[in-house]
Amino acid sequence: MPVGPMSGSWRRRISEWLLLSGDRALVALVITSLFFGFFSSLSILNVVPLLDLQALFYVYSGLITGNFTLITVVVSINQLLLSRELQTPGELRTQIENVIEYRRDVEGAADEIVPVQPLGFLRLLVEATREQAQRLGEFSRNDAVQAGGDELASEATRLTEQMDQIDTLLRESETGTINVLLTLLRTNYAQEINRLRMTKERFEEDLSPPIHDSIDEVIDRLQEIDVARQYFKAIYFQQELASLSRILLYVGLPAVAIATATLLVLTLPASEPEAIRHVDVLLPVSLAVGFLPLSILCSYILRTATVTNLTAATLPFTTPEQEQ
Length: 324
What we know:
Layout: H1 3-21, H2 24-44, H3 54-85, H4 89-110, H5 118-142, H6 149-172, H7 177-182, H8 190-202, H9 209-265, H10 273-290, H11 292-310
Helix pairs in contact: 1-11, 2-10, 2-11, 3-9, 5-6, 5-9, 6-8, 8-9, 9-10, 9-11
């Protein structure tokens, strides 16, 4: 088996796990373990002889100050979330009515009541889109003698295959919002909608009225998928920021306490051998714990930034990152 494709595949899997699919707490632990390994190697290789402990006072003082800053960031994040939730009754009514109207549009296309969970809702929407794409393909093949029929049939086949792939991923995924969102990151179907519109305009006089209507229905379903993606992204960001603020509080306070305790330990007389030995043990552990809040922040920012990059464009536009 060739090494190049395999190594590329592993690199892609590791990258996707680190940036998107991996549990954020586990990613943070991996980053922290790298810090621990780095500081341990410095101690083992005697790169840091620890003959003068004065420099460590500055290091731990910086860690304590930095972690207090992170806790302040937590307060700011909570204020941001709270400001989004504090709406007037009129604003809440308008938001709820818009969501209900969108749900009714999807129910009209699917001809059944949609689930309230993101996973079930998206599966039903994907199924409705696949059925409409199959209907377009049947119309195109029945009217194959007309111009544009082959192009529409090819596009209908491509969309049907894409919906099948998404449905398979949804069946295998968990019910969390991020897991549902991951299946929709790579495209917003702007290219597919553009091809359908161009074919419809080019062969407008040659296509039968049922094909015209079917094209419009497929475009509507694809647009509804993009609306669902953007809406689920908004829900995910709220959940992610709330989770980040909570975990930073849980980890930030113990990290400050451990860094402070280590700083107090360093007040032992440097002339005592026991003090030096304790510092050798405490140095990599306490520094890694001190960097743990930063590792958690990095793990969450990696995913939120990646999701933002892959969903930056909304219909009718797209970006190269979304089409990879």
